[in-house]
Design brief:
This protein is an all-alpha fold. Helices cover 77% and strands 0% of the residues. It has helices at residues 16-29, 35-47, 53-75, 81-87, 92-115, 120-129, 134-162, 166-202. Helix 2 runs antiparallel to helix 3, helix 5 crosses helix 6 (120-129) and helix 7 (134-162) crosses helix 8. It is globular. The termini are far apart.
């Protein structure tokens, strides 16, 4: 049975699409899953002929977009139960900093927040708390999700192109993305510490 993009939905490998969509969606709402690794693994499988690359990216973008909008809505007004749930998992300092910078360059923060580990939720909560307008939010979030999905899919494409075995390609893609995420996170935290020290020195 063929469907979108000529995908045979009766084939067992097609379960990968719901897994990619669901994994990215859940990980975008509650950061318990490495969503970038989910996308990279799906792209690696696509390069070995198990999945369709365009549909992998589409599922990732859809899951990320819905998850980001849920997070934004949770921050609207800053007093709802969902907002408190998210804020308990973020430092007050990070949230305050995001709110302060948002009024100046909101769209850029949304894009950068999506790409930087642990940067997305504080930014989106700040956007919600500040009642950032939907007409500006939607294109910024959609563009950020597309850029994010393509970036992580490319890492998976590299792994899938080097290894014909689907299991090996998936493991390599997942490991590569986790390592890159860890390095980017460490660099980001180091820069933040330097910024704080500079602020203390000049104040």
């Amino acid at each position: 049975m063929s469907g979108i993009f000529g995908v045979d939905w009766s084939h067992p490998s097609s379960i990968g699409y719901p897994v990619i969509f669901g994994g990215v969606l859940v990980g975008s709402i509650v950061p318990i899953l490495p969503t970038g690794a989910v996308v990279g693994a799906g792209a690696a499988l696509a390069m070995t002929g198990q999945l369709n690359l365009a549909l992998v990216v589409l599922c990732a973008v859809a899951g990320a977009l819905i998850g980001d909008l849920v997070t934004f809505v949770a921050g609207r007004g800053g007093r709802g139960p969902l907002s408190r749930f998210f804020e308990r998992r973020q430092s007050a300092e990070k949230l305050a900093g995001a709110r302060e910078r948002f009024g100046q360059r909101g769209w850029l923060l949304i894009v950068v927040g999506r790409m930087v580990p642990a940067g997305r939720i504080p930014v989106l909560l700040a956007a919600g708390a500040l009642d950032y307008p939907w007409r500006r939010l939607l294109p910024a979030v959609a563009g950020a999700c597309l850029l994010w999905a393509v970036a992580y899919a490319l890492l998976g494409v590299v792994s899938g192109g080097l290894f014909d075995n689907p299991l090996v390609a998936t493991l390599i893609a997942t490991t590569l993305i986790l390592v890159i995420t860890l390095v980017v996170g460490l660099v980001s935290r180091q820069r933040e510490r330097k910024r704080k020290r500079g602020h203390v020195t000049t104040s």
